[in-house]
Amino acid sequence: MQLHKDQFSQIVFDTETRTIEFKWLAHPPMDYLLECFKLSVSLIAKYKAKYVLADNSIGVQMDMGTQRSVIENAGAMKDMVIEKYARIVPLDIFQEMVSYKIADHTLGVFTDSAKFKVFSNKAVAMAWLYSTVEAPFEKDDVLLHKSAE
After folding, report:
1. Residue 51: helix, strand or coil by DSSP?
2. Over pLDDT 90: what percentage of the chain?
3. What are phi and psi of 50, to 5 degrees?
4. Phi, psi dihedrals of residue 135, rounded to the nearest 5°
């Protein structure tokens, strides 16, 4: 079910799997990033999503001020029940570092048990989201980061 779509992003909810998929469609202005974060957080909480797939494969980058704002607004995440959060980014060290930084400062706000991993391949990310066991990755699977488990 489509929850949101505009020229920059779309948010879809799969009622069967309780998955929210957020996808960047185009590079937005910086002020839009924070508003989109707030919208995503409210929809994740409202629909009690267990899984989140955040697709940033186009490489939208946040400036430092926006990163700080996202971290400062992490308290809004306290009502979430997320089990796994997969983020898709291009193979880019900067994207990877920003993903670590934000995850480290936000995921602990609402849970100690949520698992977080960064991927560059959507199929691999989705397979991980719905897996019940941690399987080893094949040679062509790209896992950029995983939370401590």
Report:
1. strand
2. 37
3. -90, -30
4. -90, 150
